[in-house]
């Protein structure tokens, strides 16, 4: 292995170590024991078979959202609205669960569950299409469209839970009635992990990777992501490409929401997404849009997410700790992840990935 | 509604808009130099926490009777935090040539989490606040006096900062150079302007102002600290920067307009309790979309076309909503 190659292989350890060092210092500053905290984190994620399955259960929605983001990032779109698309997916699935499955408890899950997943995917895709149309037709950058639509989705959930879908006993602002049995995903033993959903997520990942790398459609999206202007000159229909990418992204996010409602929860809840969509953005940024790395980092993040709940219980530290670890990891990798960026003053034109080449240029199309 | 309630309402709109104005002015300055600091939401959360905690600790440790020293310490801490976060954005984009939006977005999440984490022991406790001073003579002007000149000190400082920002951008040489850096970095570079240095400088200044905006919430407008104390405000500010066409005075106008809409919605909500509150909650986000649609699409262009010919040019200039051309782009020295 040549020296340059060795540096390239070993370097990524550095920003990760640096991030952990900073987190450790932070823990010491607030008077927490780093050993106890990290111990609780690992124990919370892997301590028993139940906990391992919980970790896997967090992995699935993170994966779905990340898979969708692979498509939007490839197209050069900042799909911040993934959070809201996930919520809309949860609403779509809940709608089928409450309106179709609830009145017909004898209906086979083989009919109900596909319907729910389709509804979730469609709701997510439509919510994303809205952000896409706002961008291509209205000149509203997808970041702002996304932020607004995220908040509107949250408000929509609260409205449904406290209004039309309020449980008959009333009062509670926390969720709808528990769905009937035929509406819920089959779970592994007594855990909240649905193997079926993980299988679907892995299939979706393979499908998306093939679509992006091996089809003309994927080529068009990649052209759009690399340079909007040259794609336009080459005759790639930018509006259609962007909206299609958004809709695939939203479809995946919608599935994430549906799966989370139908396995982790058993009803539509106020905190249905809990920041999973935003985390997925961090995952794909950290992975540099590489599919295999996305799969792995999504798992690491689900470890942090699930372990974090135990940390909070045992050490009374604020629940934001896992978010800080995740954010610090991504920030340090973005800043220090490339030795050539750090130490060379001049460098060849770097590809402006991920993200659109001309950020915030309203309505560029 | 009596005239005195109207005056009170207007005065509260002015006060409530002040922190937004500071943040908008800061971000406008940053973006005018060509850098997007997308981290506003996280930066404001963090600096609000830092400002409050530092002010409170200084008060407790120093045993100050008056609020002046603790509040000054809090504002300094907040401005410093804002500038440091901006430094990360600037360094990442100027030196490392990383994607500004990526770094900004990560910081948005990270800083909000950090704020909640570090502020966890300081939630819902009373602390120091900015002093209220009516400006003598001016505050006695009928109507305008109580609306504009009977406020906490920071409100007046905000007027000054907004005005100075406008004056600097449009009436001074360094301001012209800075706009050049944001619009056409290559031409500015050819004229000998230090692109990187200029962008660092204004990103830091802008960040400090955003930090002060955070402190203005926790030390004045929304006193104290709580979990997710001002989550979401930063995104509103970022949107108003666009609505303001990257112009400090129009940005300030946007802040007032936003404050007025919010106050009006609250008032309406109280008058019509039978309308579900959800409708009012959606209002600010629908407003954000509507306003961005208005300035982003070609609605305004068409409106200008309708005007009589001699008015078209000035009108088009007054309604210019184009971002600085070099915004968000990495500059490569040839």
Summarize the structure in words.
The complex is a heterodimer of chains A (365) and B (334). Chain A has 365 residues and is an all-alpha fold. Chain A has a domain of 243 residues: ABC transporter involved in vitamin B12 uptake, BtuC, CATH 1.10.3470. Chain A contains 15 helices and no strands. In chain A, α2 runs antiparallel to α14, α5 runs parallel beside α7 and α6 crosses α7. Chain B is mainly alpha-helical and 334 residues long. Chain B has one domain. Helices cover 72% and strands 2% of the residues of chain B. Chain B contains 14 helices and two strands, in the order ααααβαβααααααααα. A two-stranded antiparallel sheet of chain B has the order 1-2. Chains A and B meet through α7, α12 and α14 of A and α3, α4, α10 and α12 of B.
- The poorly predicted ranges of chain B are none
Structural class of chain A: mainly alpha
Could you give the order of the helices and strands of chain B?
A: HHHHEHEHHHHHHHHH
In percent, how much strand structure appears in the residues of chain B?
Answer: under 5%
Helical stretch count of chain A?
15
Can you give keywords for this protein?
heterodimer, A: 365 residues, 15 helices, globular, disordered C terminus, B: mainly alpha, 2 strands
Give a brief rundown of this model.
The complex is a heterodimer of chains A (365) and B (334). Chain A has helices at 3-10, 13-29, 34-46, 49-74, 82-101, 109-136, 142-162, 195-214, 216-226, 228-233, 238-264, 276-287, 291-315, 321-336, 339-343.
């Amino acid at each position: 292995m040549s020296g340059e190659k060795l540096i390239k292989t070993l370097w990524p350890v550095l920003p990760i170590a640096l991030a952990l060092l900073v987190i450790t210092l932070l823990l010491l500053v607030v008077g927490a024991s780093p050993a106890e905290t990290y111990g609780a984190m690992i124990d919370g994620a892997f301590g028993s078979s139940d906990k391992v399955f919980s970790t896997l259960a967090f992995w699935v929605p993170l994966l779905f959202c990340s898979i969708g983001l692979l498509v939007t990032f490839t197209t050069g779109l900042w799909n911040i609205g993934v959070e809201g698309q996930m919520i809309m997916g949860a609403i779509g699935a809940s709608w089928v669960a409450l309106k179709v499955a609830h009145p017909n408890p004898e209906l086979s899950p083989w009919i109900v569950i596909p319907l729910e997943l389709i509804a979730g995917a469609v709701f997510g895709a439509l919510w994303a299409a809205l952000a896409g149309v706002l961008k291509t037709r209205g000149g509203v950058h997808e970041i702002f469209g996304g932020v607004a639509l995220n908040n509107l989705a949250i408000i929509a959930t609260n409205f449904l839970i406290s209004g039309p879908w309020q449980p008959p006993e009333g009062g509670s602002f926390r969720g709808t009635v528990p769905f009937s049995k035929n509406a819920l995903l089959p779970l592994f033993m007594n855990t909240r992990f649905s193997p079926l959903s993980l299988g679907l997520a892995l299939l979706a990942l393979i499908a998306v990777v093939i679509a992006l790398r091996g089809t003309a459609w994927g080529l068009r999206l990649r052209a759009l992501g690399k340079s909007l202007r040259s794609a336009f000159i080459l005759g790639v229909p930018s509006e259609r490409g962007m909206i299609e990418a958004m809709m695939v992204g939203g479809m995946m996010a919608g599935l994430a929401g549906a799966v989370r409602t139908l396995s982790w929860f058993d009803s539509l809840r106020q905190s249905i997404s809990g920041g999973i969509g935003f985390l997925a953005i961090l995952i794909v940024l950290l992975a540099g849009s590489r599919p295999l790395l996305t799969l792995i980092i999504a798992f690491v993040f689900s470890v942090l997410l699930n372990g974090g709940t135990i940390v909070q219980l045992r050490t009374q530290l604020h629940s934001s700790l896992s978010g800080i670890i995740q954010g610090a990891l991504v920030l340090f990798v973005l800043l220090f992840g490339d030795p050539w960026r750090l130490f060379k003053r001049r460098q060849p034109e770097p590809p402006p990935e991920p993200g659109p080449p001309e950020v915030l240029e309203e309505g560029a199309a | 509604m009596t005239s005195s309630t109207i005056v009170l309402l207007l005065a509260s709109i002015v006060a409530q808009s002040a922190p937004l104005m500071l943040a908008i002015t800061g971000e406008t300055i940053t973006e005018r130099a060509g850098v997007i600091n997308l981290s506003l939401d996280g930066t404001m959360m963090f600096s609000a926490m830092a400002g409050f905690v530092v002010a409170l600790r200084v008060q407790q440790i120093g045993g100050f009777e008056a609020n002046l020293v603790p509040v000054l310490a809090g504002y300094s801490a907040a401005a410093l935090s804002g500038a440091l976060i901006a430094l990360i954005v600037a360094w990442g984009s100027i030196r490392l040539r990383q994607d500004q939006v990526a770094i900004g977005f990560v910081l948005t999440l990270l800083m909000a989490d950090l704020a909640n984490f570090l502020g966890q022991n300081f939630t819902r406790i009373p602390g120091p606040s900015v002093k209220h001073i009516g400006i003598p003579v001016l505050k006695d002007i009928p109507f305008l006096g109580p609306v504009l000149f009977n406020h906490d000190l920071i409100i007046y400082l905000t007027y000054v900062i907004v005005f100075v920002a406008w004056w600097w951008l449009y009436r001074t040489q360094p301001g012209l150079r800075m706009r050049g850096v944001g619009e056409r970095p290559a031409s500015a570079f050819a004229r000998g302007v230090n692109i990187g240095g200029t962008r660092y400088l204004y990103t830091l200044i802008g960040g400090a102002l955003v930090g002060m905006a955070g402190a203005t919430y926790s030390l004045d407008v929304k006193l104290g600290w709580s979990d997710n104390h001002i989550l979401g405000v930063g995104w509103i500010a970022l949107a108003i920067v666009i609505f303001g066409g990257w112009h400090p005075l129009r940005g300030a106008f946007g802040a007032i307009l936003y404050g007025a809409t919010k106050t009006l919605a609250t008032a309406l909500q109280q008058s019509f309790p039978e309308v579900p509150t959800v409708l009012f909650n959606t209002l600010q986000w629908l407003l954000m979309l509507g306003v961005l649609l208005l300035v982003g699409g070609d609605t305004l262009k068409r409106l200008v076309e309708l005007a009589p010919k001699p008015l078209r040019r000035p009108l088009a200039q007054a309604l210019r909503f184009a971002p600085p051309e070099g915004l968000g782009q990495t500059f490569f020295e040839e």
